[in-house]
Amino acid sequence: MMRTIRLLAGTLALVTGVLGAEASAAELKVLSAGAMRGVLQELGPAFETASGHKLKIEYATAGVVEQKVAADEEIDVAILTKPRFDKLVGQAKIVSGTAKTLARAPIGLAVKKGAAKPDISSVEAVKKALLNAKSVAYPDPASGATSGLYLAQAFEKLGISAELKPKLRLVAAGATAGPRVGEAVARGEAEIGLQPISELMEVEGIDVVGPLPSELQSPDLVYAAGALFASEQPIAAKALIDFISNPKAAAVYKSKGLQPD
User: Fold this and answer.
1) How far is residue 250's CA from residue 196's CA, in Å, rounded to a whole number?
2) Which among 21, 50, 115, 235 would be 20 to 30 A from 218, CA to CA?
């Protein structure tokens, strides 16, 4: 608890980096990929206190964020994986001058709390752990989850897709959030769960064994934030992006299982 309080106190100092806000407080609509939820739950209130603006934050998979931005839904700030983000910049949906790269989200492996932790120190060790597990959960690629799409490809490259298929548990996204793989593990529906560590850390009842080896990490799980061309609050939107990308926020990112840019 004290560590969290210290982190929050540190984020308040970021006000010195915030751009001038509009004469009246704005309400910003933010749509973010789920890997950033833990960070925004901490930095969001600090930004509101520092700026006087209010945030309305919703979470989805990066694929859904991309779809909603492309469809010109009412959003001020979007946060999603870099390849999808860059595509939206190219489509003139996001203002390139507001773009900031925030952090990388390593994929981790989790087991039910108290369960034996498999060796994941090498690619071969991970392969063995997956093949030995009775069931493996990961984000459903059909939900638009970047990690799910990547893991499906990784299983193919490892040559274990056919053997894993009978025991895979695809976790779909919820109505207002991305897939919660950790919850499937906590309920005993899967022996092993794979997802970005920042999302696994949000779930009680599981132990995060650690990140997968670097050879099994996705190059696409880098998150960026930007303001939409359609935003009616461009100054406040830019202030939020500057706030959450300030180097002084690095400790918050690290505490949530992310690697700050």
Assistant:
1) 18
2) 115
